[in-house]
Amino acid sequence: MSLAPDNTERLARARADLRMGVPVVVAGAGVMLAAETLDAARLNALRDLGAAVALTDWRAKTLKVAAYDGDVARIALPSDTSVAWVRALADPSGDLRHPMKGPLRGLREGSPLLARVAVALCKSARLLPAAVIAPLDDATSFARVHGLTVVDADAALTTAEAALRSITSARLPISVSEAGRLHVFRPDDGAEEHYAVEIGNPDRNAPVLARLHSACFTGDLLDSLKCDCGPQLRAALAQMGAEGAGVLLYLNQEGRGIGLANKMRAYALQDQGFDTVEANHRLGFHDDERDFRIGAAILKQMGFGAVRLLTNNPAKIARMEDSGVRVAERVALKVGENAHNHAYLATKAAKSGHLL
Questions:
Q1: Burial call 292-310: b when 16+ CB within 10 Å, e when fewer
Q2: Of 10, 290, 293, 319, which residue is the catalytic one?
Q3: Annotated binding site for GTP
Q4: Residues comprising the binding site for Zn(2+)?
Q5: 3-class DSSP state for residue 296?
Q6: CA-only gyration radius of the chain, Å
Q7: Residue 348 and residue 287: Cα distance in Å, rounded?
Q8: What is the pLDDT of residues 246-303, one digit of tens each?
Q9: N or C terminus of the chain: which is more exposed, having fewer CB within 10 Å?
């Protein structure tokens, strides 16, 4: 029996390494460092290998540099590269104070594979989607010499959903229903756990009243006025309690899947005058980076094949249907609008298709 880690386990190691500023090697391609966590010594070492900066096409558009590779851009490093220069490319917080970051030279030659893997790994580690990359002729030997984690490119870029395991469940009386139960699910890829709050004893043979709720620390816990998440959470649970049955999935996909730190960066950009979608794009993310297949997988494991879905987001309906969970009815959930989030909700309706 081999004790060596498989591809999934290596990717989990790689995410942890990147968050600590440790380089990761991509088999057959090269080495990468997350722009957010790099230090001067490691930056200089990669620069000597002929490094470049990898960014998403969204961030490249903000920086006015061509993304010749389509979804990613590779930018040449100048000889006097500093950590501050690289981070300024990755982090838009200083764009308005220091708008001129060039001249920037986009690279056309060579394969974009390493750049794509680097951006994908940074996203999965909940870091800014930018990295310093350096191609290598013998990446595996380089990793062996330096003791670095090696990941498979195809595994890093795959969009397959991680297997979820039911870990435990227990009775949990809550204010809206004494007949509550909390289920904990853990993905095999080392990512965050997800939870299901079951109210009553829902009939598995009928569409269950369900809510896919993405974790929102600021809204759910602090009752932030910048979003409608907290009111939606409480209203969904209250409706399930009133009906005597339902299931609320609490998915750890903070900030539409970009993580709390990046969500706070987006909030700071909103304070500069950008709307929620524009802020995500300036950071280098898509409008929404969540994976709703996780919710469908949990529902199916719990025995539910059809739902009455509490949502204003048509994308959730489409993803449920695509994943084999029938949406028998969309139940509107329009709560929580106030003077602080009116523009945010209007943007979600106009740009993200929410039914508000």
A1: bbbbbbbbeebebebbbbb
A2: 290
A3: 211-215, 232, 254-256, 276, 311, 316
A4: 216, 227, 229
A5: helix
A6: 22
A7: 10
A8: 999 999 999 999 999 999 999 999 999 999 999 999 999 999 999 999 999 999 999 9
A9: N
- Active-site residue flag, 6: no
Regarding the domain delimited by 7-157, which CATH topology (the fold level of the hierarchy) does it fall under?
DHBP synthase (3.90.870)
pLDDT in tens, 299-334: 999 999 999 999 999 989 999 999 999 999 999 999
Q: Which two tokens stand for residue 291?
A: 């994976």
At 100, the pLDDT band (50, 70, 90 cuts) reads low
Closest to 325 measured CA to CA, from 341, 348, 313, 308: 308
Query: Of these residues, 10, 181, 288, 319, which one is catalytic?
Result: 288
* Active-site residue flag, 152: no
The whole model's pTM is what?
Answer: 0.93
Domain 164-253+290-352 has CATH 3.40.50.10990: yes
Domain residue ranges in the chain? 7-157, 164-253+290-352
